[in-house]
Design brief:
The chain is an alpha/beta fold. The chain contains 8 helices and 9 strands. The strands form 2 sheets. A 7-stranded mixed beta sheet has the order 5-4-3-6-7-9-8, sandwiched between helices. It has a two-stranded antiparallel sheet with strand order 1-2.
């Protein structure tokens, strides 16, 4: 994944993710990139920080910082982690690049007490307008690559993701709607307006009371 830090420190959306994580917990960052979020959590919250990253370059950057990161493919390798291994499993701007997002989400909540998922919302009004007027796949301001260069194979909308959670019986503990900058969009709370006016979304998820995800 791409580098996750800005010149001034952690990206705003990653700071919001960090705010959701309790100190002294066990954290797995899936698609951890250069390890910026993991390093921040280890330094500021003393978590047991671990990661899985597809790119060899990303793994090298993480290991050079002393982070416990392995090279792996989340679509395949999350199934090998024991149940309830972590308190938080994080998937930031990555679920749309998974071959089987449903299975990845199920595995996240099998191995973690909580899941934290963020993604670009392709129902944002600018994307709809671009597609209607130009008849071409829109790009997002937070991910400006054209359709043929992006790693996205399953782009979704905020409402799509909530419906998937409902189908799987996943509990949504908290939802945040974000601007392209990663800052919270605090103007709306209705799902239809959030879906239309938010460029990104961030979810804190948990397993059903039974502990099983469909």
């Amino acid at each position: 994944m791409a580098a996750r830090a800005t010149q001034n420190g952690l990206r705003p959306d990653l700071r919001l993710i960090a705010d959701l994580v309790e100190p002294h917990t066990r954290v797995l960052d899936v698609g951890c990139g250069d390890g910026a979020l993991l390093a921040f959590l280890a330094r500021t919250k003393q978590v047991d920080a671990r990661g899985i990253e597809l790119s060899q370059t990303g793994v090298h950057e993480c290991v050079s910082q002393g982070l416990a990161v392995i090279q792996g493919d989340a679509d395949k390798d999350l199934a090998d982690f024991p149940e309830a291994s972590f308190d938080y499993v994080i998937l930031s701007q990555t679920i749309q690049a998974m071959r089987d997002p449903q299975q990845v989400l199920q595995n996240m909540l099998r191995i973690g007490r909580f899941g934290i998922v963020s993604f670009i919302n392709y129902a944002y009004w600018r994307s709809r307008w671009h597609l209607m007027l130009r008849g071409r796949m829109p790009t997002a301001r937070c991910q400006p690559e054209p359709w043929h260069a992006t790693s996205n194979i399953h782009p979704c909308t905020l409402e799509d993701f909530e419906r998937l959670c409902d189908e799987l019986g996943v509990r949504i503990e908290h939802r945040m709607c974000l601007a392209a900058s990663g800052e919270p969009n605090r103007l709306f709370s209705h799902i239809w307006l959030d879906n239309l006016l938010s460029e990104q979304a961030l979810f804190l998820l948990s397993r059903p009371a039974s502990g099983a995800v469909a």
